[in-house]
Specification:
The chain is α/β, with parallel strands linked by helices. It has ten helices and nine strands. This is UPF0042 nucleotide-binding protein.
Length: 285
């Protein structure tokens, strides 16, 4: 029997997650009154029940009764009715954008102040996030990516990685990525743009990588960057962070930043404690 509580921030993708789990064969119930959770759990865990996978959506719509959820979870623990908590998260800017696009009112914004509603919701859901078995940040992933993450957890039963690291190369003339947590400027490195045979290539090409990394300064910088990031990530994991965005910039985002981003990615992907992906934001500009 697999009993999953799906929760998280409004606008972070809970409805999509429930639909995906339903596709996976879960019996899904959304917004069940808190008072009925114990009864519902008893029915599903009953040996005569033919349900093997159940997902239950619980969120801020429960109102003041949400605070009583802790009692319900403690009762499940006492009865040895095993459950898992899936928490969907997204950063404030993304949630604001999604509300603006959908033109929906936030459940906690009485006078239309979505930002204030998001802040209040984070406070009310903090206790659930602390108890969560899986935290997925949907700020920068599509529904198909969410399906892939849920597939790993609930189909393949793979090792879920709560921290997801994104490495982004960018060009300063196009602006710094707004969601960057760490920003590194590599414009001090030799610039392949001024070499005729390399000008129209990118950091994805071996010739450009060799030119950039032939610099002693580039090699030393990369070494120090690897050491620092490898030191920071375990601390971010212990802090409970679920997303880390590392942005590496040069002038146009074609050569040096792409090279260093690729090199750092190759180093970090060796570690299985966190997920990782890379993105070259301005390489086609």
């Amino acid at each position: 029997m697999r009993f999953v509580i799906v929760t998280g921030m409004s606008g972070a993708g809970k409805s999509s997650a429930l639909k995906i789990l339903e596709d996976f064969g879960f019996f899904c119930v959304d917004n069940l009154p808190i008072k009925l959770i114990d009864t519902f759990a008893d029915l599903t865990f009953n040996p005569t029940s033919d349900l093997e996978k159940v997902a239950m959506g619980i969120d801020i719509r429960s109102g003041e009764m949400l605070a009583k959820l802790t009692d319900s979870l403690d009762i499940l623990n006492e009865k040895k009715q095993d459950y898992e908590i899936l928490f969907l998260e997204a950063n404030d800017n993304v949630l604001l954008k999604r509300y603006k696009e959908s033109r929906r009112k936030h459940p906690l914004s009485k006078y239309g102040n979505v930002e204030d509603g998001i802040r209040k919701e984070r406070e009310k859901l903090a206790f659930l996030k602390k108890r969560a078995d899986y935290i997925i940040d949907t700020s920068n992933i599509l529904v198909r990516d969410l399906r892939g993450e849920l597939d790993k957890i609930f189909i393949d039963n793979g090792l879920f990685k709560n921290l997801y690291v994104r490495i982004i190369s960018f060009g300063y003339k196009h602006g710094i990525p707004q969601d960057a947590d760490l920003v590194f400027d590599v414009r001090f490195m030799p610039n392949p743009y001024y070499i005729d045979e390399l000008k129209n290539k990118t950091g994805e090409d071996e010739a450009v990588q060799e030119y950039v990394m032939n610099s002693e300064a580039a090699q030393e910088f990369l070494c120090k960057l690897k050491d620092m990031v490898n030191f920071l990530i375990p601390n971010y994991i212990s802090e409970g962070r679920n997303q880390l965005v590392i942005a590496i910039g040069c002038t146009g985002g074609h050569h040096r930043s792409v090279t260093i981003a690729n090199k750092l990615y190759e180093e970090l992907k060796k570690n299985e404690e966190y997920g990782i992906k890379k993105e070259h934001r301005d390489i086609a500009r």
